[in-house]
Design a protein that fits this description.
The chain has four helices and 20 strands. It is an alpha/beta fold. A hairpin with a 4-residue loop joins strand 19 and strand 20. The strands form three sheets. It has an eight-stranded mixed sheet, with no helix packed on it. Strands 1-4-7-10-13-16 form a six-stranded parallel sheet, with no helix packed on it.
């Protein structure tokens, strides 16, 4: 029966179209995933990486990037040499073009959906003083990523279980996104977001409460 149904589906859709629909052809092959993660991250069972995904771990060991089970990564994960860590839980998703950059600590819970072209950065990335910033940039070009943070400011980010981050969102340092919260498309999040609320805008502001899931 199953073989008959499978043949019927393939006859209607076609093998190539079915593969495209399922996204199978976008998955990195096993050898590529192994090469990507063996020195850069700890990866849970059934987690998947897609073409275009990156792990740039400039830290001291692979445990600084820790990904749970059945999580799908299409974007870029970066840990700076001077510090930082990224933890993503189970059954979560990171969309294409999304950049998660850590110089402190970014913790993302279970069942979190992060859409495409999202920026999550727990550091202001560069120094405030123009001369210092210029000199450090020249150091970066010459010697690679900095071993010392210098005067760069960092604060941890926490995105709790069941949150949904829509496309084009930017989440800045020191922010906690509450459980089940929704951040609307294009928002700039500079302050904490309460559990089970919707925020939107630049800067993101409270719009409404949503019904919590039952435990």
């Amino acid at each position: 029966m199953r073989k008959t149904i499978s043949r019927f589906i393939l006859k209607i859709i076609g093998k190539k179209e079915l593969v495209n629909f399922l996204g199978i052809n976008e998955l990195l092959p096993y050898n590529s995933i192994n090469e990507l993660t063996k020195k850069n991250a700890i990866i849970g069972k059934d987690s998947k990486f897609y073409k275009g995904s990156k792990i740039l771990n400039y830290g001291i060991d692979r445990s600084l990037v820790n990904i749970g089970q059945n999580t799908h990564i299409r974007g870029e994960l970066l840990v700076y040499r001077y510090g930082g860590s990224i933890e993503i839980g189970n059954n979560s998703f990171v969309g294409e073009g999304t950049k998660i950059w850590s110089g402190d600590k970014i913790k993302i819970g279970n069942n979190v959906l992060i859409s495409h072209n999202v920026n999550i950065v727990d550091t202001n990335s560069h120094e405030l003083d123009a001369i210092e910033r210029t000199e450090r940039f020249k150091e970066l070009l010459k010697d690679g990523h900095w071993e010392k943070k210098g005067s760069i400011i960092t604060k941890p980010i926490h995105i709790m279980d069941y949150a949904w981050i829509s496309f084009g969102v930017t989440i800045l340092k020191g922010v906690t996104i509450g459980k089940g919260a929704i951040v609307a498309a294009g928002s700039l999040v500079t302050k904490d977001v309460d559990d089970w609320t919707v925020v939107a805008g630049n800067p993101a502001k409270f719009k409404k409460n949503i019904k919590p899931i039952e435990n």
